[in-house]
Amino acid sequence: MKIGAPEEIYSGESRVAMTPDSALQLQKLGHECFIQSGAGIKAGFTDAAYTAAGVTVIEGAEALFDAVDFVVKVRPPEEAELSRLKAGQTLISFFYPAQSPEMLEKAKATGANVIAMDMVPRISRAQKMDALSSMANIAGYRAVIEAGNNFGRFFTGQVTAAGKVPPAKVLIVGAGVAGLAAIGASTSLGAITMAFDVRPEVAEQIESMGASFVYLDFEEAQTDGAATGGYAAPSSPEFREAQLKKFRELAPEVDIVITTALIPGRDAPVLWTKDMVEMMKRGSVIVDLAAERGGNCELTVKDERIVTENGVTILGYTDLPSRMATQSSTLYSTNIRHMLADLTPEKDGVINHNMEDDVIRGATVVHQGEITFPPPPPKVK
Ligand code: NAD
Q1: CB-based contacts of 257: which residues, under 8 Å, 6+ apart?
Q2: Is 127 a catalytic residue?
Q3: Model-level pTM?
Q4: Average pLDDT per run of 10 along the chain, which is 381 residues long?
Q5: Which residue of the set 83, 99, 127, 212 is catalytic?
Q6: Residue of minimum CA distance from atom 30 in ligand 1
Q7: What interface predicted TM-score (ipTM) does this complex get?
Q8: Residue burial 160-189, b: 16+ Cβ < 10 Å; e: rest
């Protein structure tokens, strides 16, 4: 099959869905690879590097869409991109079908198939295709780098001839994929790192990474996320009160807060309130990774960097993976390549869009002119 990646058109997006390395692997599966001229440049991959990897470089998005059977992309398609899709083609990209029912209808009208990378079931077998986790890992790491860039002090403590420097205190709220990556980056820079999650089972992971788990003074067990397949469920009002009380105690002493708390299918819970921001020291930094879904901090403005009257910087950036475009393109294109490997079981360039396969079925949101979202629950763990 012919597989091609166009340039991303979303403003400020620097990632690309195919790298020269991923193209070499796709060719081993029997596919031919195509790239729109310049599509990889912001991620550090030149047209010449693609050509050297056996990829055909095509001028312009229209010609690229016309040339291929499979279009691979990062961002959900925009209308201009959907209008270029034709019946029988397949698009693989992030799509967020639950949030964009209109785009799902428009995609269906094209007659093309759509595989949504955000819908890959989170089962062990599909981890190699789990692009949400790949990107969350990068976002968590980058959140710490952004915090450091906006913080006027070291992370680590030092005793120098010019004086003693205390270590920074970092609080990570939410210890899923992004939160754990942030913990790793923060502890490796030498900060005193604390983390909180409503799922008590993550305490061990937090502690094994050199951070301390923030325990609440709360009679009932913390919400057990197991009932929702490893994700969090909304907390009871009493639990939430206990959580906010603990955060109010911590607010005057922490230097950096990185929030990553999300509950599937809901707006982000507000956990870092205005009065907590007001209690923080001048020069403190908050990085809100939940900004896309409304933010965990009450004062976050999506995609903005704001500085409050009391000198606290709040970052609501939603493009953290794109800020590390080489790394994120490398991991994302590998996730895509694994998806295509499962779609090419005989490694002979022949696609078998097998709707009996849990992973392929779960990720397919439009198939042969029908909307196939939401999928049935996966049979395998
Ligand atoms: P997520 O992005 O949905 O949420 C981030 C974190 O926020 C979660 O840990 C959640 O418990 C936490 N949270 C929610 N409400 C909170 C609150 N009020 N206060 C504090 N924290 C709160 O989660 P995610 O990063 O996608 O990962 C969720 C789980 O899925 C993790 O256990 C992860 O290890 C697991 N996972 C499994 C697979 C797999 O098996 N293939 C892949 C990825 C993730």
Answers
A1: 170, 171, 172, 173, 272, 280, 284, 285, 286, 287, 297
A2: yes
A3: 0.95
A4: 98 98 98 98 98 98 98 98 97 96 97 97 95 98 98 97 97 98 98 95 96 84 54 85 96 98 92 98 98 97 98 98 98 98 98 97 97 85 57
A5: 127
A6: 230
A7: 0.96
A8: eeeeeeebbbbbbbbbbbbbbbbbbbbbeb
